[in-house]
Amino acid sequence: MLDWIHEDFETICSNFGSLFLYDPEAPMIFSSGLFWVIFILFLPVYALLKNSKWKMVPFVVCFSLYFYYKSSGIFFLMLIGTSLVDWLLSHWIHKTESRRKRLFLMWLSITVSLSILGYFKYANFFLLNWNLVVEGNFQPLDIILPVGISFYTFQSISYVVDVYKKRIEPTESWLDYLFFLSYFPALVAGPIVRADYFLPQIKANRKPTKANIWGGMWLVIVGIVKKAIIADYIAQYNDLIFDSPDLYTGVQTLMGVLGYTMQIYCDFSGYSDMAIGISLLMGFKLGINFDSPYQSVNLTEFWRRWHISLSSWLRDYVYIPLGGNRKGTFRTYLNNFLTMLIGGLWHGAAWKFVFWGAMHGAGLAVHKACKPILSRIPDNFFTKFFFWLLTFIYVSLLWVFFRAADFESSILIIKNIFVDFQVMQIPQFIEARPVWCVMMLAIIIFHFVPQRWADGVLAAYVRSNWVIRLIIFLIVVQLVIEFMTEEVAPFIYFQF
After folding, report:
1. Is the Cβ–Cβ distance between 122 and 349 less than 8 Å?
2. Residue 347 falls in the annotated catalytic set
């Protein structure tokens, strides 16, 4: 009897302990229950240490590194190494007077960062394409892509470039820089945080206000609704369409494409909302990352509203250094195209991402070229609606190439919509998938709600008493339980 109890106790302890170890099949994400258990334990200790920057910073760094360990395993050591190299080189750049030497050191740091990213993310892609050219017998390298490497690599590059251009001074303490680079709310899927925006906040170390705390909590709730309820639920149908596009009619395929258009927005903006909200709870601002992008009436506006931290990074560290709009009309179009091409490749090591970026670059160039003509068109409801619809269709069709397994599947999906579309099947679809349709309708309505209305709801939530907040929280928890899938779905942008 005692032996049986002892064995059961050891099993329980072993299973409990394994929850806190890295599991490649279940990386830690914001919508997982384990994260919230650990974060709830983290917050009171953080609050006690907040008054002292020299106690708070090491504590948050340790928690961030543990969070990254739970997300990506042993690669947290690579993050530490990257931060140390960046920090040492940034100080060397700052102390060096020779412009040529400073430039060399900056490119040395960028080369190191891009080489690491290139090996893990693009080695197999380039080797595969080289072998196709020489007709070799290619066997893919056994490479595991560290979660979030694209995000923190871009942060690393922007920091070193800003030090080189004397926009900022390097941090005195390596821990401060490691805090910036490893800060867990933004670590694995952004937003991409700029050093000139975030480092002063570390130095100031301000306590979160009531508006920060409850505003952050509201963003977390909104993010959970977007990700864990809407995105994860509608993804179940969308996946059927993209996994077997030859089995579905035009109406079913169209709904899957529209579903993925909303899914990727809810998934990624939901993660950003949670990241920004969690950071506000800690007293740090990450900035806005999405601004109702599907309201855009042209591609230029879309990229000012979609993944703002990435689009602004590409503008400042790729488009402008290429010459921006300072080298004439042709170079402006070419720079736009090349910037989006790089943005597409950043998203993934596959030709479909290159094509996706190239088509967005081409669309931006066409929009700029047509501006003199567009400026003469009356600005009224009908023209706005037409250009909104045109932009939405273009963006949605390009999401097909982003999501589908390959070009053949993408073409088949688009062909199904235009060749096999029968309007009379729409009522049948609504009858067959009423919950999916309700969720789609809800996110479409909320997406087009005027910003002042959304701000008013946020202000009302902040002013409300704890009973109202508790009821809202319990409703969201119940909805998550009601609609959750068998396992927590990873965020789409984890793969990037």
Report:
1. yes
2. yes
Per the residue annotation, which of 347, 360, 367, 447 is the catalytic one? 347
Average pLDDT over residues 103-122: 92
Report the alpha-carbon distance of residue 264 to residue 253 in Å, rounded.
16
CA distance 237 to 242: 9
Furthest-apart CA atoms within the chain: distance in Å: 88
Cβ-based neighbours of 442, under 8 Å, separated by 6 or more: 230
Joined tokens for residue 422: 């029968």
pLDDT digits (tens, 9 = 90+) for 413-446: 999 998 888 888 889 989 989 999 999 998 888 8
Q: Return the axis-axis angle of helices 195-204 and 174-182, rounded to nearest 10°.
A: 120
Burial class of residue 242 (count of CB atoms within 10 Å of its CB; 0-12, 13-18, 19+): buried
CA distances from 173 to 54, 178, 180 (A): 10, 9, 11
Provide the percentage of residues in the chain whose pLDDT is more than 90. Answer: 49
pLDDT of residue 491: 62
Q: Which two tokens stand for residue 492?
A: 């789409």
Separation CA 192–CA 153 (nearest Å): 9
The DSSP symbol for 246 reads: G
User: What's the one-letter identity of residue 450?
Assistant: P
Among 292, 269, 238, smallest CA distance to 413 is for 238
**Is it the case that residue 4 has pLDDT exceeding 70?**
no
Kindly compute the dihedral angle of the four CA atoms of residues 412, 416, 417, 421, in this order, to the nearest 10 degrees.
180
Q: Tell me: the pLDDT tens digits for 49-103?
A: 998 888 999 999 999 999 999 888 899 999 999 999 999 999 999 999 899 999 9
